[in-house]
Specification:
Rossmann fold; single chain; 8 strands
Length: about 250
């Protein structure tokens, strides 16, 4: 990355994390679009795991484990990165949320639900991992970006160096199907102000803000203003989805 971004305004005793591109972070205004795009999925899942014991695998900074802990009976966030583990433990540990430093491949449950978001594209042997999920929990929530909207047209992968493979909707479903009795795939889409922004782009907004010399000023305001309500998780039209979210039942 050309600039270095570090989390702002962390609570006392919580080490801030640097944005590397491997995972998204809250409290970085320039990263807010990606953070909210991931947050809406955690909020969507939190409504479905009320009262359950949940494992949030590859939990990263820990914000998602905290969101799940608002409704779940218990949450364990698992991540192998030492800086992320230290940060998450210091910031989000509570009576219902705890953290373990471990490889996700080592997790064997049992629990009521596994949450594994935006990470399957990083895994060398996803089939073995998914088989382990099915053995460890009755339901797993797995998300991944849509190749068709992340990568340039016709490319087999985006330029994200952390991703080993990116999936189309049918490829993602085919990856999951052998390991679960049922798989239901939803998409993440723009809503609210982001939907309006998409419409503005379709009629030439890019040319207007560039001609007026206000590109930086506009996006310095617009990007931090985005909320999770500016995304929606729904079925249908998956080729146009930003990300896929699969509900996988063992």
């Amino acid at each position: 990355m050309s600039e270095t971004f570090v989390q702002k305004d962390q609570p006392e005793g919580v080490p801030p994390l640097e944005l590397t591109g491997e995972r998204t972070l809250p409290d970085v205004p320039e990263e807010n679009y990606w953070f909210r795009r991931h947050l809406v999925v955690y909020e969507w899942i939190a409504r479905r795991v009320s009262g359950l014991d949940v494992a949030d695998l590859a939990c990263g900074e820990g914000y998602g484990s905290e969101v799940l802990g608002r409704t779940a009976r218990s949450v364990v966030g698992v991540d192998a990165n030492p800086e992320a583990f230290a940060h998450a433990s210091a910031r989000y540990s509570s009576a219902r949320v705890s953290f373990e430093r471990s490889l996700v491949e080592a997790f064997d449950g049992p629990c009521d639900a596994i949450v594994f978001l935006q990470t399957i594209e990083h895994i060398e042997d996803p089939g073995s991992l998914l088989a382990g999920f099915a053995a460890a929990a009755p339901v797993s929530y797995v998300s991944t970006p849509n190749l068709l909207t992340l990568a340039p047209a016709g490319a087999e992968k985006s330029d994200n160096p952390w991703h080993l493979r990116e999936y189309r909707a049918d490829e993602f479903a085919e990856l999951l199907a052998p390991h679960f009795s049922s798989v239901e795939v939803f998409g993440v889409f723009h809503a609210g102000r982001l939907a309006w922004h998409d419409r503005a782009l379709s009629v030439g907004w890019d040319r207007v803000h560039a001609a007026l010399g206000m590109t930086r000023a506009f996006y310095d305001w617009f990007t931090p203003s985005i909320g999770s309500s500016d995304f929606r998780v729904r079925k249908g039209d998956l080729d146009r989805a930003l990300d896929f979210v699969a509900v996988c039942r063992a």
